[in-house]
Design brief:
164 residues, mainly beta, five-stranded mixed β-barrel, three-stranded antiparallel beta sheet
């Protein structure tokens, strides 16, 4: 598996699956030992080895970063990255919580390619990472004769009282 060029998401990582739906890519189960320095997490793999995973989330991950939680990792080894694994999901009692903040954008675009959000995109030209002043917006939908629609895609990893 090779690193992609935007956000470290490899090509095909979140892609339309044969027969419909989306393919996430192979994930590895582990147990969270600790999260630290905002971008790092030590985890224990099923074989007992301990590895450090990149955590693409600058937020506090309130309620979903306690040691002992089951987690799911993607593997990106062999591409020159410092850490071969990325923390993707935390298994909470009521749901899987996505903690990789780069995934929602890719998920929406993969869903669009798969035709899963056709009504949302109806007749629109879609532009990604559109400049707006000194920043960028995730998505712009343009339709003839209609105002442009700017879309900012967000990830939420807040868990309260064990519920995501």
């Amino acid at each position: 598996m090779q690193d992609g060029t935007d956000g470290g998401i490899p090509p095909g990582y979140l892609a339309p699956a044969p027969g419909g739906g989306l393919y996430w890519g192979a994930l590895t189960r582990a147990v969270l030992l600790r999260r630290y320095k905002r971008f790092l997490a030590d985890v224990r793999l099923d074989d007992g080895s301990v590895v450090t995973a990149h955590t693409a989330n600058t937020g506090a991950m309130t309620g979903c970063s306690e040691p002992g939680r089951p987690v799911w990792l993607s593997w990106h080894g062999g591409g020159g990255r410092k850490y071969d694994y990325t923390l993707e999901l935390v298994d909470m009692p009521t749901a899987l919580v996505g903690v990789n903040t780069g995934v929602p954008n890719h998920l929406l675009f993969a869903a669009a390619e798969a035709g899963a959000v056709a009504e949302f995109l109806r007749g629109a030209t879609v532009r990604r990472e559109v400049r707006c002043g000194d920043s960028r917006l995730d998505l712009m939908l343009q339709r003839d004769g209609e105002p442009d629609v700017m879309v900012e895609i967000k990830n939420c990893s807040l868990v309260e009282d064990g519920t995501a």
